[in-house]
Design brief:
The structure is a homodimer. Chain A contains 15 helices and 13 strands. In chain A, the strands form three sheets. In chain A, strands 3-9-8-7-6-4-5 form a seven-stranded mixed beta sheet, sandwiched between helices. The first copy, chain A, has a four-stranded antiparallel beta sheet with strand order 10-11-13-12. A two-stranded antiparallel ribbon of chain A has the order 1-2. At the A-B interface, helix 3, helix 4, helix 5, helix 6 and helix 7 of A face helix 3, helix 4, helix 5, helix 6 and helix 7 of B.
Chain lengths: 433, 433
């Protein structure tokens, strides 16, 4: 509320309100009549009426017909003065976990965004379809069919801001109660199951899983976390058979499927039973830029038939501008071109990282694991001392890492390190290790 | 997978895989050696090795050192042919509930988006701050201080895709169990409390509320749903005192605060105790365009001190491009200009709707309620017959409406009807009512 352009009635309202709050009126006392106050102040009766009306609406005075306005009893609780000594919290962006800026063709993306704003702007004036925009779901349908042999109807696809958001929607309408998964867990997903009070059943291998009775299995069969191991075809078949005979749904979190350095991409488990018992989930997080958060899931027809009666309950969180832009980005073939470039650079970095890790360390310091996929390595240290020195070096360089529980291992992401810096970075990370 | 550019090894891999799946090898039988197959097919040994490696990774064959590759037992479950006969589900956008396209200055917004992409694109390459971007939180801080006298530090502000998303975050880290509210409930909010297994305590008035023991009160004191009634100052004071002495948090959902046609905007309840016991929530949904989904909440310092240790658990769902664009839109004063224009048009529509409703209906058909605020009216019909005819007319015109339980009333939104169409629309809606 700045002081210019404030209407006169509001000044009057503020004045009387302050007087009431300062107990300058007795409770129940009558306010001066509209006509009399207007005359005294040389203002219009309309102005006084408006001020009184505002006091009336907020409950500072009451109106008694044919009698006038009376002050109500208003005792405001003590208010502490605002204390803005909040301990600040700085969100740290780690260099090694971002996308290097030379990768994304931001100019093409800007052109696409402008196209949407210029030609599709009418669509921006209506609410989002709670399932996501049809244009984007259709592009996703084509994409996952081509790349992952996931066959589905566009109606089975639901868009969300991330795996957590999609799980929220899924658990909300399915109303189930237990989930199994290979430990270690994918924390962000499991926290949603915890929120829904699920019984969590961590298991160590596929055999243990297929001996479990559960509503859901959460798994990344083409890229288990964090080592990127692959669930072999025999185990996949066992999982499908087990899911069918137990009415279990397999949630396939197919993250980073396109990043495989020494083999062709591994088929989705969805393609093993045409998704009768598989909920397929994917994300564009690592394929685009991290600031655009778009994920999607494919519901089996049996679940779609429940979902379609309740989907209006959840609002769509992904911005429509982002949805329509990505749809056009995909339709015009720019997305395919981008992921190709991206993959080539990831591969180059992966090789450089491994090369320099081996070059600057002695043999018995650690073993490198999980380097065939993903954008991180797992380093398995021989001694706690080496591990600790390495993490200290990470912290000094402001690099992100994640320790693995009960192991002398850590997960080290590298996608954000510029290719030309890798040698120097590795040297420094291995300093005195 | 299109057929151009597919590497040779992949053809070989597909061929052998198909043979294995068609049982053309006996279980355990040995594959031809790499060298021998390469010679027979006139291809390089590398190509054969790559194909065998892919089969190995996926688990179709196993490798026995110094002996060769052997076929594993792989019985794939029957797969139904994909049935794409999904009952399609068309999301209906109702004309009367959108934003009319002449309102939003899409050109300025495009200029802002381009500015962000041109000058701030480096920020787009890093992950979002889980609380929302600092630039936007700072603009929100200034905005709610100016408009709603909400005093807070920028660190207390959390951004989300909507009230549901913010409630998810809030309920997740606070770990409480009961909520009270004035019935009728705001359904989308209450569904989140239900998800978290909350005890729901609907009440009819403030006195009932202040006799309740509960963790949260969910309320819109400046605009109760759906009639837009205002909680008077005495009741507000009682609520603050009650909240303080019971360790209750008041969730103030301050939606549409800026839309008041016959009075000045009503103060936030947050300003009554500087937010010690009030969680302030707001949304840009009706102030911008509905496709940009940005909401925010202000945490009391007591809750902020819990939140700051767990905030990394939740990913930020709002696109960073949208966040940075809105921040700049606000900073450059375009937002203020826009909401002013918006408010003027809402007011004009509100008056036209009321005028024509009265013109084309007889006196005893219905009463108009809740018309002093919001973008809807509540029509209270005298007879069920009139109500039913009105809703039939709504359906014929593809207009959205919402019935109020146990009453002959309905909520009718009007923001999407063009000002010049209002007379004709009302005529048709009242046809034979």
């Amino acid at each position: 509320m700045n002081n210019t352009n404030i209407p006169l009635y509001q000044f009057l309202y503020e004045e009387i309100k302050t007087e009431i709050l300062n107990n300058e009126y007795k409770k129940g006392s009558k306010l001066e009549s509209v006509r009399s106050l207007a005359k005294k102040r040389l203002i219009s009766t309309t102005t006084v009426e408006k001020a009184y009306n505002q006091l009336l609406i907020e409950g500072y005075i009451k109106s008694v017909p044919r009698s006038g306005y009376f002050v109500l009893d208003v005792i405001t609780p003590d208010i502490s003065s605002f204390n803005n000594l909040v301990e600040p919290l700085v969100y740290k962006t780690y260099i090694n976990n971002k996308l290097t800026t030379d990768l994304f063709d931001i100019k093409s993306y800007k052109r696409i965004v402008n196209k949407v704003i210029n030609y599709d702007y009418e669509k921006l004036y209506t609410e989002c379809d709670p399932r996501g925009e049809l244009e984007l779901r259709e592009e996703i349908r084509k994409f996952i069919f081509e790349e992952r042999n996931v066959k589905c109807d566009v109606n089975q696809i639901v868009i969300g801001t991330g795996i957590q958001n999609l799980l929220n929607i899924l658990l909300d309408f399915t109303n189930k109660s237990s989930v199994t998964y290979l430990s270690p867990e994918f924390k962000k997903a499991m926290s949603v199951f915890r929120t829904f009070n699920y019984l969590l059943l961590p298991k160590n291998d596929i055999e243990e899983i297929t001996n479990t009775k559960t509503d859901f299995l959460y798994i990344s069969p083409s890229n288990t976390y964090p080592l990127g191991d692959i669930i072999k075809v025999k185990d996949r078949n066992d999982l499908i058979k087990w899911a069918r005979s137990n009415n279990t749904y397999i949630i396939e979190d197919d993250y980073n499927f396109f990043i495989r350095y020494n083999s062709y991409t591994i088929p989705s488990i969805h393609s093993y039973d045409n998704g009768e018992n598989v909920i397929y989930m994917g994300s564009f997080a690592k394929m685009l830029i991290p600031s655009i958060r778009i994920s999607f899931m494919v519901l089996p027809i049996s679940l779609y038939n429940i979902y379609k009666d309740t989907y209006r309950k959840n609002s769509q969180g992904v911005s429509k501008l982002d949805q329509l832009s990505l749809a056009l980005f995909m339709k015009e073939g720019l997305f395919k071109r981008h992921t190709k470039k991206l993959y080539a650079q990831y591969k180059e970095k992966n090789e450089a990282i491994k090369k320099f890790l081996l070059k600057y360390s002695s043999n018995d310091l650690f073993t490198i694991q999980g380097s065939d996929s993903n954008l991180h390595l797992v380093l398995d240290f021989k001694t706690l001392k080496s591990l600790n020195q390495f993490t200290r070096n990470c912290e000094n360089l402001s690099f992100e890492y994640q320790k693995i529980e009960n192991k002398r291992s850590l997960i080290f992401p590298y996608s954000g390190i510029e290719i030309n810096d890798i040698q120097e970075v590795i040297k420094r990370l291995l300093h005195e290790v």
